[in-house]
Structures are given as structure tokens and as C-alpha cells.
Amino acid sequence: MNSLVCDSTSSSSILQIRDFLYTELTPVIRSKRTIVIICIGTDRSTGDSLGPLVGYKLKCLVRKNLIIYGDLEEPIHAKNLVTTLESIKSQHNNPYIVAIDASLGKLQNVGNIYIEKKPLFPGMALNKGLPSVGDLSITGIVNISGNFEFMVLQNTRLFTVMTIADTISKGIYHFAIKSLGGKNSSLDDVLNNISSSN
After folding, report:
1. What domains does the chain contain, in order, with CATH numbers?
2. CB 80 within 8 A of CB 119
3. What share of the chain is helix, strand, coil (3-state, %, to 5)?
4. Of 167, 140, 176, 172, nearest to 156 (Cα)?
5. Model pTM?
6. What pairs with residue 114 in β-bridges?
7. Looking at residues 115-133, what average pLDDT do you find?
């Protein structure tokens, strides 16, 4: 299976994400490659804050072979993406990169999460001209595409972004527990606290 589409509001989506990632990334773990999760976006725009929110929720998940870049404190965005990618390549030998970012789409797809075995192109909606990122990509449709997409991102509902971020982060968390083992109570606390604030 090359892709997964799921609804962030569905109770089954967390397990769908967990199982898809487990299938795709278990061979990567067995080959001893480091998995690097890059959460792209900025906390200065509601619609573009999906990546930093996921990174914030998963910051306690970091293990020896699972590294996370990008959160609310230190977001990965257009101005530092290239240098971040250079840093990752210099610090990790042949890492497997999972890229996470917000996206705009059709009205009926708002709230959906897409996981694909291909890179994503951050900033495409705003014509940023950034490099492609990732061996595998996870995108959340936060709002509708169309004219004035910068304004659309600025006026996106935080509830929608938080719902998508919560589902993605929990799916990744449960994948890590299933594949790498070792329950992390501090991460449970972080996820529960953020979920209860929605």
C-alpha cells in the first residue's frame, strides 16, 4: 500500500496511522537507519501551525533511532528548512525522513490526513520554491485552496488544526510504542494535556 487517507475526526484513524507506519517503517528500523521526523510550519499562522503542533506533542518521543525536528519553540519553516536539511544529512547517516506539513485542498477533504510514500513540497501553495522533503510524507488538509491562500491559512480554525495534529501525533506515538517498545508516561501526559485543551 503506497498511501493512506483517513479522517482526523474518526476514532479509527489513530490505529490506521499506527498500522500504516508500522508496515512501512519496520524494515527501516530493522536496517538500523535513523528515522527523522521533520515537522514543517510556523506558529505565526494558524493554518500553518500543524507541523509545529505535532512536533510539540511528540517532543518526549525522541529515542536513539527516532529524531524529531520542528516544534512550537523551534519551528522548521521557509527560512531555515534548507539549513535544517543540511544539518540532518551531516549528523545522520542515510536517515529515513518523514515530513509533516499542513496543506490546502477541496472542501470535502478538510480534516483529512494523507500519508504517502513520496516527498512533500512545503510552501507550494505560497510559491516558496523550497526543496522537496521526505521519503514519506504526512499532510493534513486544514482549509480550502483557492485565491489568497496566505489569508486562508491565517483564518483557519485552530480547532481543525488541533484535531488533525492530535490524530497524527497519537498515531505516530502508538507506532513508536508498537515498533520500538517502552511506554513513555511523560508523552502520555503531554498528549492528554493537549487533548483536554481542545
Report:
1. 3-196 (3.40.50)
2. no
3. 45, 20, 35
4. 140
5. 0.88
6. 5, 139
7. 82
- Asked if 100 and 40 count as a contact pair (C-beta separation under 8 A), the reply is yes
Q: C-alpha grid cell for residue 3? A: 498511501
**Residue pointed to by grid coordinates 484535531:** 163
The percentage of the chain sitting over the pLDDT mark of 70, rounded to a whole number, equals 88
Cell of 52: 509545529
What region, left, alpha or beta, does residue 94 occupy, with left being phi > 0 and alpha being psi -120 to 50 degrees? Answer: left
Query: What is the DSSP code (8-state) at residue 85?
Result: H
| Beta bridge partners of residue 133, listed in sequence order | 120
pLDDT at 184 over 60: no
Residue 52 DSSP SS3: helix
**What is the rounded CA–CA span in Å between residue 180 and residue 66?**
9
And the C-alpha cell for 155? Answer: 483564518
Tell me if 121 sits within 8 A of 132, measured CB to CB.
Answer: yes
In angstroms, rounded to a whole number, what is the distance separating the alpha carbons of residues 77 and 42?
6
State how far the Cα of 119 lies from the Cα of 18, in Å rounded to an integer. Answer: 19
Find out whether 40 and 77 touch, Cβ atoms under 8 Å: yes
